[in-house]
Design a protein that fits this description.
By secondary structure, this protein is of the alpha/beta class. The chain has a single domain, classed as SPOUT methyltransferase, trefoil knot domain (Alpha/beta knot, 3-Layer(aba) Sandwich). It is 30% helix and 23% strand. The protein contains 5 helices and 7 strands; from the N terminus they run βαβαβαβββαβα. A 7-stranded parallel β-sheet has the order 3-2-1-6-4-7-5, with helices on both faces. Helix 1 runs parallel beside helix 2 and helix 1 runs parallel beside helix 5. It is globular.
C-alpha cells in the first residue's frame, strides 16, 4: 500500500513536526505541505527548528514537497489521475465513519487547518470524506492525533 499525506493550511509547526514523525512510523512515502503549512526548510533555505525538533528528524526520512496556495486542488487531481484515492478527513454531512471505509492501495489522506478544517474546494474533489467517530464532549481531535489514527488504519 502506498500512503501519502496532504496537509491543507496547517498552522502549527509543532503539529507538522509531529505528523512527519507519525508519517515516518506509518510508512508514508510523501508529505505534501499545502498553502501556508510550515515547511521544514523555509523559502530562504533556513531549517525550521520547531519542525525538526518535533519530528526527531523524520522530515529528512520522509519525502516532502510544498504545494503553493491555490495549487492544492490541481495537485490532488494530478494524484487522482495517477491512480491515487483522495481521502479527506473531515466532519461533514456526507462523511462516513473511518470504520466503514476500506483503505485503497494508493491513498492520499488530506488533513485540514486546526480551526477551519479541509477547504471546501478540496472536499468537492475528494473521492471520499471520512471522519473519526467521537464519543466524548469534544467534536474533534488534534490534527496530529488524527493523522496518527488514520495513517495506522489498514
Amino acid at each position: 500500500m502506498a500512503k501519502r499525506l496532504f496537509l491543507n493550511n496547517i498552522r502549527s509547526a509543532h503539529n507538522v513536526g509531529a505528523m512527519f514523525r507519525t508519517a515516518d512510523g506509518a510508512g508514508v512515502e510523501r508529505v505534501y505541505l499545502g498553502g501556508y503549512t510550515p515547511n521544514p526548510i523555509d523559502r530562504f533555505n533556513r531549517v525550521q527548528p520547531e519542525i525538526m525538533k518535533t519530528s526527531l528528524g523524520a522530515c529528512e526520512t520522509v519525502g516532502w514537497e510544498h504545494v503553493k496556495r491555490g495549487d492544492e486542488v490541481a495537485a490532488l487531481q494530478k494524484l487522482q489521475a495517477d491512480g491515487c484515492t483522495v481521502v479527506a478527513v473531515e466532519q461533514t454531512p456526507e462523511s462516513i465513519s473511518m470504520y466503514d471505509y476500506t483503505v485503497p492501495k494508493e491513498v492520499v489522506y488530506v488533513l485540514g487547518n486546526e480551526i477551519d478544517g479541509v477547504e471546501a474546494a478540496i472536499l468537492e474533489i475528494a473521492d471520499v470524506v471520512i471522519e473519526i467517530p467521537m464519543e466524548g464532549a469534544k467534536e474533534s481531535l488534534n490534527v496530529a492525533t488524527t493523522a496518527g489514527i488514520v495513517l495506522f488504519t489498514r
